[in-house]
Structure prediction request, 154 residues.
Amino acid sequence: MGERDGREWRDQQRHAVRAHADADDRRRAAEQAQAAELVAWFVAEATRRGLPTTRLTARGYDGRGRYRTRLTGWYVDRAESRAVDVDGRFHLLTVPGGLRALLFGVDPQPSPAPLVVGAGGRDGESIPLRTLLTRLLDGFGEPGSTTGPAAPGA
Prediction:
């Protein structure tokens, strides 16, 4: 293989890697937009149904401490490690702990909601965000009541 052939091959590889990364970025952005739409639908529906909100707390990375936040919203999993606030933002509620966090509370930043919660986790359990939010809504109100609009994309 000559020097020119090697250069062309490297350019083709670089182009292929860039194209793959760009496609992955577009897919991720589309999934995040779809998940954001689901979260917005959930907040509107939870508000319409009068689903009670709670003051959210965060857990330390080590899992031992619980810390106050200024957030109000709904936990979306049993472990109370993920939540949606009343402004329609998704939060992972794990934070660095410590004395300062205990005294002053914490301010977890919103993160993009995943379309599949728990995907890639060590326990192998995952659930579509749509299913998780729908179950949360269906657990409140009159039994069997599904009078609200369906989740987007349902």
User: Anything to note?
Assistant: Residues 141-147 have pLDDT under 50 and may be disordered. The helical segments are 3-49, 99-104, 129-138. The beta strands are 54-60, 66-75, 82-85, 90-92, 94-95, 116-117, 127-128. DSSP finds three helices and seven strands in the chain.
